[in-house]
Amino acid sequence: MFDIHQQLFDEDGNRNDDEIADYIDDLTTEFTDSPEAQPIMETYGEIGWCQSMMDLSINHLGSTPAEMTVHDFNEVVYDLMPRKVTIESEYAFEIIAELKAFWKFVARQYGLQNAQQIYDSIDETAADDLEAELGDSSNFGMAKSFFTMGLAAGYDMTTEAGLLAFQAAFNSRGATVPLPGSDPRNPTMVHVFDSFGFENTRPHHGAVLKKKRLEKKRQRAAKKKNRR
Questions:
Q1: What's the angle, vertex CA 16, arms to CA 15 and CA 22, rounded to 5?
Q2: Which of 23, 29, 37, 189 has its CA nearest to residue 98?
């Protein structure tokens, strides 16, 4: 069984990106293979939002699913996601459905009281609440606003070429916005980061997720072997 209690930070609070990536990938695989995930797969065709939740919680709050509280969960879903992740508000119901299934799985599989508490806290208003937060532009950080403007203007903001093209058009009007760059740390998602900590996340198809997870693990194993 996956060790959900493993430590991802050393005594000084330093993080290990490879271990964090492995943790998120492995727990996602466990969840994807669970009975709780099957209705999500059948309805939406893929699993991915739990990865966004774990990534934000671990990297911004320092909490793994074994340590997350209801407060942590609410901060990630209703504060960090709307500010840092480009998600159309219509995805709120899909996100909440997957996260509720995820916490039901974690509570059953690992017997964690915090997981049961988080699961119980996701009530019938959760999706409506998230939809409102995702659609409220006042929640957007500077970089997310920039990204959203580019999408609205018809630019492909998931590619460097699209980012450069929109930045050039934007700057030609006398404004200056730092250009996000691509981050390959988590291949199961399309990530776009910049100095404001902005993140654009869109899940890929489940088969692609699995293939990319395996390739990333192979690369990390090769890297560790070369260090010996």
A1: 130
A2: 37
Q: What is the dihedral of CA 147, 153, 157, 163, to 10 degrees?
A: -90
| Helix orientation angle between 17-32 and 92-110, rounded to the nearest 10 degrees | 90
Rg (CA), the chain: 18
Let me know how long the chain is: 228
Q: Give the three-class secondary structure for 69.
A: coil
CB 77 within 8 A of CB 99: yes
CA distance 208 to 203: 10
CA proximity to 85, closest of 196, 214, 170: 196
Rounded to two decimals, what is the model's pTM? 0.68
pLDDT per residue as tens digits for the range 163-176: 777 777 766 665 54
Closest among 169, 134, 132, 137 to 150, alpha carbons compared? 169
Look up residue 68 and give its amino acid: M
Q: Could you state, in order of their start, the residue ranges of all structural domains in the chain?
A: 17-223
**Tens digits of per-residue pLDDT, 171-199?**
666 554 443 333 333 333 333 333 333 34
Inter-residue contact 81 to 52 (CB < 8 Å): yes
